[in-house]
Amino acid sequence: MAGNIAMVVSVMTDNKKVEATEFDEAVLSCVYSLQRNSKYRLEWKKIERGGGDVSFVYYEGDIVGSLKGRAEMFDSSIRIKNVTRKDSAMYRCEVTTAAGYVEEVEVELTVLVLPATPLCDIPRNVMTGTVVELKCREKEGFPASQYDWFKDGERLQVQAQNAKVKTSPGSYTININSGTLQFNTVAKTDTGEYYCEAYNRVGRSQKCLAKKMQVDDLNVGGIVAAAVVVSLVIALCGLGVYHAHKKGYFSRGHTSQKSRSVYKPAPSTQNEFKHTKSFVI
After folding, report:
1. DSSP secondary-structure letter at 86?
2. Which of 147, 144, 153 is nearest to 121 (CA)?
3. Torsion angle of alpha carbons 56, 57, 62, 64, nearest 10°?
4. What is the pTM of this model?
5. pLDDT tens, 56-102?
6. Strands across the sheet with 119-121, in order?
7. Is 209 in contact with 195 (CB distance < 8 Å)?
8. What end-to-end distance do the CA atoms of the chain give, in Å?
9. DSSP state, residue 184
10. Residues β-bridged to residue 165
11. What does the pLDDT look like over 137-149, one tens digit per residue?
């Protein structure tokens, strides 16, 4: 059956994988040939990625669905104007003959998206010798963005193609995929104004809001002095409690009271002994 179908109709494309930058134009090509002068039906369908929904794009001689008003047919191909990221999908060109023979070809459209302006998380004040991490992230770009960091307008260098690279050993580490800039032991020389940029093969984004990171020395003397003061306060409080206890301020009473016994007369009995006249005159 497959051999008979191939002899009746054939369908092919000039490009099975089409890439276009968002808001530009994309062409989905479809070329067919019929060996006999017979009637046929041409249809285009959109298949969402991941085995999703199937919908018509070209049906009964008209552009339909989400491409209506943004696309046009020329011959059996489709020209999409002003593509968006939602147009990324698999498209199928189908030719069906009057006898019911069907041939098809699929074209994958990938819309490339420029990165958006990233968001940066940059601390303002840190202490020398501590671990400090600066973060940069954006979620719009396709393919996924990578990141460059800048200090005082100068790009911080990375020395290899790996995602995680150390430059100036012991100074900082840049992960170009996650967008983090980490100082394992930050120094006063790392004080400066920082910002990052996201980029992919479409282009670069605008830089994030630049912020100054101030690195100050850890005041060891002040910490020791504060610890001594706290210790003295605790010691004085303990001494005060000890003397108060010796003075008896924490006893339940200053004088002991002797228990007093209360005399209670015995209750009188109701049946008292009564004298009766026992003499007989």
Report:
1. G
2. 147
3. 80
4. 0.69
5. 999 999 999 999 999 999 999 999 999 999 999 999 999 998 888 89
6. 119-121, 132-137, 180-183, 172-175, 164-167
7. yes
8. 161
9. S
10. 174
11. 999 999 999 999 9
